Automatic annotation (TrEMBL):
Organism listed in the record: Bacillus taeanensis
UniProt cross-references to InterPro entries, sorted A to Z: OxRdtase_Mopterin-bd_dom, OxRdtase_Mopterin-bd_sf
Annotated ranges, domain Oxidoreductase molybdopterin-binding: 30-178
SUPFAM superfamilies tied to this protein: Oxidoreductase molybdopterin-binding domain
Name of this chain's protein: Sulfite oxidase-like oxidoreductase
Region listing for Disordered, in residue ranges: 1-21
Pfam families: Oxidored_molyb
């Protein structure tokens, strides 16, 4: 009894307001799942407020320092999933290699089919942000973002673009797909920044 209530107390710190814990892993997105037969035509474009635009092949990207992180994810629709183990390229290490212009204050992540999401550059550059290719030691499935997705765990999970194809640095904060449709420009789950009016 004592341990039970103690655990509950701990979970309450860890679970943002009005979220419930899920054991499975829901699949959620707008649009179609891309199914890649090969990654020959895949690239990641880095552009905007940088000295030089870059287009990296999947293999070139994999040469950057990789990290493994464990974190909790929180979807704005109300589910949270604890203890996700991700593996992928460290955003910080990748971006250190790009010469950003001083006005690069925001990031727009571009996914397949023109889907986008926006966030401040400091949030993207956190040590816990990564471009993940694996979850729980296995390659991402097409539904969860194969071959590469962003993971920015301290914001609601819609900021973690699946099927990432571009990273744009921008001087101003331009709303992405869900942000244009009423979602919050920042999206801190612990402050319940779900909608633009929150
Ligand atoms: N490209 C793309 N990425 C996306 C989305 C999307 O619609 N398109 N939806 C977001 C939302 S709302 C959530 S909750 C998570 C869901 O990721 P999952 O399906 O791996 O759980 O992906 C995010 N990334
Ligand atoms: Mo979501």
């Amino acid at each position: 009894m004592f341990f039970g209530s103690k655990r509950k107390e701990k979970n309450n710190d860890r679970l943002p307001p009005n979220q419930r814990l899920t054991e499975g892993w829901p699949v959620l997105h707008h649009g179609n799942v891309p199914y890649y037969k090969s990654l020959e035509k895949w690239d990641l474009k880095i552009f905007g407020c940088v000295q030089q635009n870059k287009e990296l092949t999947f293999n070139e990207l994999m040469n950057y320092p990789q990290i493994q992180v464990r974190n909790d994810i929180h979807c704005v629709t109300g589910w949270s999933k604890f203890d996700n183990v991700w593996e992928g390229v460290s955003v910080k290490a990748l971006i250190e290699d790009m010469s950003l212009l001083p006005e690069a204050n925001y990031v727009i992540l571009h996914a397949e089919e023109g889907w986008t999401t926006n966030l401040p550059i400091e949030d993207f550059l956190r040590e816990t942000s990564l471009l993940a290719h694996s979850h729980s030691g296995e390659r991402l499935t097409p539904e969860h973002g194969f071959p590469l997705r962003a993971v920015v765990p301290h914001l609601y999970f819609w900021k973690s673009a699946k099927w990432l194809r571009g990273i744009e640095f921008a001087a101003s904060n331009t709303p992405g797909f869900w942000e244009r449709n009423g979602y919050h420009m920042y999206g801190d789950p612990f402050k319940e920044e779900r909608f633009s009016w929150d």
